[in-house]
Amino acid sequence: MIILSNDSLYNHYTMNFALRQQHNFNLTELDDMLPFERDVYVSLLVQKLEEDKQRQKSQTDISWT
């Protein structure tokens, strides 16, 4: 049974694919998550990616000066 919070079915599968491919979650882990758990993990991953992007940008800016 798939329980979606504020998510379309397409977004659900797209996010599952990204989490499996790039962050090493397995499908059972993703399917067993409650909707709020999934939202928390996605939010934390987005935050980490934004921090990594900012850190990389800062390092690039420093190397150009």
Task: Provide key terms for this protein.
65 residues, 3 helices, 0% strand
Q: Could you explain the architecture of this structure?
A:
This protein is mainly alpha-helical and 65 residues long. The mean pLDDT is 85. It has one domain (9-64). The protein is elongated, with a radius of gyration of 15 Å. It contains three helices and no strands. The longest helix has 30 residues, at 35-64.
Number of helices: 3
Morphology: elongated
Q: What is the residue-averaged pLDDT? A: 85
Ranges where pLDDT stays below 50 over 5 or more residues in a row are none
How many discrete domains? Answer: 1
Question: Largest sheet, if any?
Answer: none
Specify Rg, calculated over alpha carbons.
15 Å
H-E string: HHH
Category from helices, strands and their pairing: mainly alpha
Number of strands: 0
N→C terminal distance: 54 Å
Beta-strand share of residues:
under 5%
Helical content stands at over 70%
